[in-house]
Structures are given as structure tokens and as C-alpha cells.
Hints:
The structure is a homotetramer. By secondary structure, the first copy, chain A, is mostly helical.
Amino acid sequence: xxxxxxxxxxxxxxxxxxxxxxxxxxxxxxxxxxxxxxxxxxxxxxxxxxxxxxxxxxxxxxxxxxxxxxxxxxxxxxxxxxxxxxxxxxxxxxxxxxxxxxxxxxxxxxxxxxxxxxxxxxxxxxxxxxxxxxxxxxxxxxxxxxxxxxxxxxxxxxxxxxxxx
Amino acid sequence: xxxxxxxxxxxxxxxxxxxxxxxxxxxxxxxxxxxxxxxxxxxxxxxxxxxxxxxxxxxxxxxxxxxxxxxxxxxxxxxxxxxxxxxxxxxxxxxxxxxxxxxxxxxxxxxxxxxxxxxxxxxxxxxxxxxxxxxxxxxxxxxxxxxxxxxxxxxxxxxxxxxxx
Amino acid sequence: xxxxxxxxxxxxxxxxxxxxxxxxxxxxxxxxxxxxxxxxxxxxxxxxxxxxxxxxxxxxxxxxxxxxxxxxxxxxxxxxxxxxxxxxxxxxxxxxxxxxxxxxxxxxxxxxxxxxxxxxxxxxxxxxxxxxxxxxxxxxxxxxxxxxxxxxxxxxxxxxxxxxx
Amino acid sequence: xxxxxxxxxxxxxxxxxxxxxxxxxxxxxxxxxxxxxxxxxxxxxxxxxxxxxxxxxxxxxxxxxxxxxxxxxxxxxxxxxxxxxxxxxxxxxxxxxxxxxxxxxxxxxxxxxxxxxxxxxxxxxxxxxxxxxxxxxxxxxxxxxxxxxxxxxxxxxxxxxxxxx
DNA sequence: CGATAATCGAGACGGTACGTCGTGTCTTATC
DNA sequence: GATAAGACACGACGTACCGTCTCGATTATCG
Lengths: 165, 165, 165, 165
């Protein structure tokens, strides 16, 4: 069931390789996955910027939703994040290798909006981005509720409304 | 490292019990944990209501943060949620046994505010609650960023600002 | 495989009886078998005596052969004797409950012949009987060689020849 | 109590070896014993031949008695033969690996005597050897009666007397 | 004839050993 | 000289039975 169904012996056998060769290059099963996952996952991150904050946010959150729920990489990500709950070292590795880059993309629409002057200079980017992507991750990892366009729309609208004041 | 360091044999030995007795009553290691966890976790949920939405939200989110980061039950919850990423059946069990109740408590401040007339009848409770608790879970499960009072304050203020319009 | 495939739980279940009821009356699995076996095994022993030593011996050894190789009781006997190699107490019980009676029957032709005066008074009955039945048991328990009429004839003839001198 | 007191786990532990290593090389507990037993048991078989049939037979039967009742290998042999009563495959293995060689030694005095001309060419070696060793095995495996020099002497004398005619 | 035991089936219990699987390390034989 | 193949010590798995121990339900005995 999940990661423990994926044995090192099976990986080696499937690769037509001795176990030792695996151990020579990776310290653990999760490291193998992390390496295999990071490359194609990072390539899927979109650095687009249309100049329209609402549009950018909706597109970005939609892409994030699709990554998490529909892509193979997203499935691996969930598996790794799951494993990381029991393994702080893995958690750190995921952050360094993947989450940091993903985070930059998450921040991009906000940062660009600040540069444009659409948002005030003193905006707390971190808190805002967490408020935008947090609900997405929550539904994926915890509640299992579906990520509908309406939900994404609601997140973005609440955010935009909150900064109108 | 986490759940696989907790063997059934150790559980049985520690309980002064034969392995078979564990297997007789629980189908898996996670079921044992789920049973042991649910009782004391649910008891920690607070149904308080002061009549002040902002105050209630901050208190509730603060309690949630403490549960997730500082309590034993929270640690078990993280481990279970982690395992659930590889195991849809476990995910479902967690929702039925625990998340559902937790969710009710999460919704309470909003529901009460609606009853009071502080929020409009047509408020989408689910989307709003996800937006409030989502960022908390995100930091705990994914980013590892700290749950400061300032962060909680920021979440609540953005929400309140968004509904002022 | 043999006796350890016959579990107490299976015996109890097959008899529609609680395990405790078995344990109340028998101390061990072999005791159950011993009881079940002794009755019908003893009833098969023939105390006939025709007055003709050769004829009696051949008939007796033939019967013994059939008992050991063709009857259900013989199969149980082999199983019990097998178990007894590892269990002196069982060995003793088998002797008291069964082998002793069997032995009397084995001795009968010789004893009768002595009474008749066909054999000298000082005949060592035990040694002679062992020499007669020993080869039979040897083939059954050890060598697996078949118990042909010719073999039985050979045993008897050698014995009769040996006492002619 | 015998073989079931000798667990695979104990064998492995005593050998400072993982259980798997045992299972890799032997299919069952009895196979382990058989291998361990055969080597030193075969080495104890004596191919001596003095040219005197009576002397050779007495010496051989005496050695056989000592092997069965006084040596460690004899104890293992009895345990294996016991187990073999419930396990035809084991019975066959014992015959191939051990009994066959033992049998050759058992036959030797008779065969040599025939070569010497002390016994007729048409002698039925198998039947005779069974008659000689059968009583020994019978006392060991079934009756438990002691193997005295007098008993062995009686066996040999009866045999020699029977061929005098 | 109804209360009171004794006996029984059922099966949970603390244990022990089973045979299997996967781990990470070490060795061999091949290319 | 690197590598596939796989043996090795180890430890947890989930299963099967062991012999002991409660449980009701069902009999049988006696008041």
C-alpha cells in the first residue's frame, strides 16, 4: 500500500540492476523517488504573468490543483509529503529540492502585482500566499473535498475583497 | 522512523498481550492508532462561543495550531494523515472517525455568526472554513513554517476584511 | 504430515466439542489416539491354536503383517510408534496398553508348542518370538521392503530348521 | 519432546545464522538433521571381515546394537525413523541416504561367507539379513527390551543352526 | 416444579514457532 | 574495475495451535 509496496529489491530488479548499485547512489528509497520526481515536477511550474492579478491567481491555483490531483508527479508528491510526516529529514529535503521552487512560483503573481503597484509595498507575501494555496493543499491532503473551479474562484475573490479595504 | 518503527510486536509486548489478540480486534497498525487516538483527540475539541466572531476565530485557530504542533494527539494525527496519503481507506476512516467532528468545531464560529446575523445567510461555510484552517494545515504538513500569533491574526483579519465589502 | 497435521482444535471441532472437554479426559493428543486405537486393535488379535506349530506361526505372522500394512489400526500403530521414538512415556503407555497383549498373542504358538512337548521346556520364548516378529517389524518400520508370503515362509522355516538340531 | 522441541529458530540461532539461510538450503527440519546425521553415521559403519562367519555376525550385530542404543547418531536415527512413520518422503530419503549403506554393511558377513563357500550360492541374502537385524531393531523401536550379548548370541546361534541342516 | 449446580460449546487469551519478505551489507563471477 | 546476481544476519510480518481461562446456555439434581 503506497510507498512500502515499492521495495528497493523491486526497483533494482525492474531496472535490471543489482541492489548494491541503488545503494551506491541513493541513501534511501525516498531519495530515489525524490530524484525521479523533482525533475519532471519542477518543469511543470509555470512562470507566466499576464498583468492581471485575478487572472494570474486563478490560473496558478488551477494549475496547482491539477498538479496535485491529476498528475503522476502530484501523486508522488503526496506520497513523499505523507512519508515526510514521520521523517523530518525527508521533509527538509523536499523543501530544499522542490517546495522552495514551487513556492517561488506561488509567490510570483503577488510579487509581480506589488512591482506593478497593484498591491502595497508592505504586503506580507508569505502570509498571503499561504492563505491562497493553503486551502488547496488542505482539501488534497486532509479533507479530500474536490477542487472545483468555484472553490478556486471563492479563494481568489475573498483575497481580492480583503485587500480592497 | 515514524509508524514503521512502531511494530505490532512491540505494541503487543508493551500491552502484555499476544500478537493474535491485537489482530483479533484490529485489522492493521493504523487501526490501532486510530482507535487510541480518536478518543482523546476528540475530547480536546472546544465548542465555545463568545458571541464575538473575531475573538472566536482567533481562539479556535490558536487551539487548532496547538493541537497540531504541541500535543501528542497532534503528532499521531500527522502520522496518520501521512500514512493516509498512500492509503485511501485509511483516509476515509480518519474522516469518519475524526475529521468530521473536528470539522464541526471548525465550522461552529461561522455558523454561530450566521445565526446571530453577523454573516449573511447565503455564506458558503465550507469554502470559508477551508480558507481559514487550510493555511494552518499547509504550514504544518507542507511548508513547516511556524504558526505564529501574527500569522493567525493575519488569516482572521483578511477574512473579516473580505466580508466587510 | 501425520500426527502434527491432526490438531487438538480439529479433533474438538470435528467432534462438535469444546477444546476443554478434550483436555478434561486426555492429557495429550497421543492419549486420544491411544484410547481410540487400543480397543479395535486388540479385538483383531487371534488366539487360535491348531496344534501345528508351523501352520500356527505362518498364520500368526501373516495376520501380523496384514495388521501392520493393511489395517487402519496398523497405520495408527505406526504413527504412535513413530511418536514414541521421541517420547519414552508414550512408549511405555503403548507397551502397557497394547504391545503387552499383542506380545501374548505372539508368544502363544510357541507356548502351546512347549505345552504340547513340541519344543523343549527350557526354550527362551522371548528371544525366539523376537526373532520371529522382529523381521516383520523391521521391514514395516525401517526398510519398507514388502511382506511377501515367501518372506514369512522363510522366517518360519529358518526357525524350524534351527530347532531341529 | 524430541524433534518438535528442536525448533528451526533455535538451530539458526545456535548456528549464528538467519532463519532464511536454513530455509535456503534445506526444505525442512528433518532434512537438516538428515544431512547432519548421515555423514558421521556412515563413518561408523565397519567393513571388517575376519573370515569367521559367527564371529563376524556377532561383532556386527553388537556394533549395530551400540549404534542404536548408545551413540548420538543412533538417537537421531531413531528420531528420524519415528518421524518417517508419518512421512513417506522422509522414509525414502532415509533409505537412500543412510539405510542403503547400512544395509550393505549388514549384508557383508553373509556375502563374504558365500564367496568363501561357507554358505550356499543360492542363499536368500535379503531374507537372512532381515532375520538377523530385524530382532535388534524390533527391541529398539518397539519392545524396548534390552540388547544383551546373550540375545545377540541367541540370534546368531539360531541362524547358524538353521543352515546346518 | 422451580431453584441450583455441574457440564458443556464456544472462543478469547498470553504464548511460541512457523515460513515469508524486505532490509542493508558483503561476496563472487562476469564482462 | 565496475557490476548483476544473490547469499547473508537480522527482524517484523501475519498465521496456526498450544494449553488455560472465562463465559452463557443447557442439562440434570435436589429442595
